[in-house]
Write a structure and sequence with these properties.
Elements: H1 2-43, E1 48-54, H2 73-80, E2 83-89, H3 95-104, H4 108-111, H5 127-133, E3 136-141, H6 174-188, E4 194-201, H7 216-226, H8 228-237, H9 248-279, E5 285-290, H10 311-314, E6 315-316, E7 318-322, E8 330-337, H11 341-348, H12 355-359, H13 367-370, E9 385-388, E10 406-410, E11 414-419, E12 425-428, H14 444-459, H15 473-481
Helix pairs in contact: 6-9, 7-9
Bound molecules: zinc ion.
Amino acid sequence: MSKIIRKRQKVITILIVFIVVFISYLILAHVNSNVFKFIRNNNNNFDTVFIITVDTLRKDHVSFYGYPYKTTPFIDMISKTGTVFENAYTVSSHTAPSHTSMFTGLYPSNHGVLRNHDSLANDIYNIKKHFEKNGFKVAGFPATNFLEGKISFDSIKDKYNDVVKGKQGWFLTASQNIERAKAWLTKETSKNDKIFFWLHLYDAHQWQKRGRMDEKYFKTIDELKKDNTYYDYQINKLNIPLEFYNSKDDLLEKIATYDAKIKMINDTLLDFFQFIINKRKGGKFLIILTSDHGEGLGNHNYDSHGKYLYNEQIKVPLVFWSNTKLIPQKREDSFISSIDLFATIVDLVNIPLSSDELKNQDGISYKDIITNDSNHNLYEKRKFCISERRPKDETELRKSWIDGRVNCIVDKKGKYIYNEKGKDEFFDLENDSFELSNIISDKQSLANSYNKKLSYETSKFKSVDIKNQNLTPKEVKELKALGYL
Ligand SMILES: [Zn+2]
């Protein structure tokens, strides 16, 4: 009998142990999932957010996009642990409209800043207002006078004159502007503040001359010029026409100066990163690096930007980086426009735009694409990007431009450029990445479908009169029937 009792007791003990283990397992699993959630959520609480715009940075001169000369070794390191967009387009190849579109999420025609020196209307919602509303300390460090205090960020002109060393002209060099950013971080922020700022680096814009660059980069120019592969790369891989320059040496000197200035910016950024990472130890960083536009450098017989909408001017580098796990390391193929930056950045920081605010946006959030959110439906957000050319005016630089509106639509396969008073163009980007051969008359119906999409998109622009687009009354009727107009 006692044997049976002992056996029962043993079974009961085993059962109790099993139940205790099982309940403990459930409790632990619950705690673990909460801990996991806490870590995930906490990753969103960025307290150090900044956007760096490297003015006039052509995507194909950046080494992490395949340029074989090491122009951006530090930024390459960032790119290796961040999300790099392969198909990022700016909405304008002109400085003020392009930046204003990043900060407002609107096309230039919709925010109204069409030229440098224009000011953004006070009632237009923007990234600076949004971060401030959400408790961040905010500052903008534009390197040029014509952006100072005009495109959403308050003017800080003359505020940090005491820290800016060397000659100040109409623009500040990368190291001078970074001195201002360092002074702001030191004097006006503490480690407990959440901060958001914009840092603009202008030196590459002034690539035609060596002026205002640290002399140690003269060596970089000379080394590039001596490299036997360098000239061939410019001519054969980047399609730069020698005849655009006075001589082979003129071409080499100017392009190598462009690359050396990019390298100088890269090195100054490394210095700044060391400073801010030390200053905000333990901080959760989100950094966005991009450009407002590229540069002609002689392609399409043009050495500047603003006049055309070819890819060397509107395709830009774009990297998201963080020291948290939220931003994965990857190369992202989706098309993204500079108007998407506002909605994307604030969404990543966990202060998304409200549904009412989103209604007023031209841009959309790419948070789920960047973070590989399993809830997103894995379709590409944007099938194409749209850009607008800066309007012509009577200044010396723009006197020769063809008047009228110029817009373009670009997707993976092609690009259509609508030219109100000039010739429209259509390019097969799969076989003609340099946009050399206008095939509009050979591919009429395909070109037409691009033009219709473009007309529909630009018809939503505030300042565009649909009559100015090349639509026949029949096409207007068609678009109306489709609900487009
Ligand atoms: Zn610019």
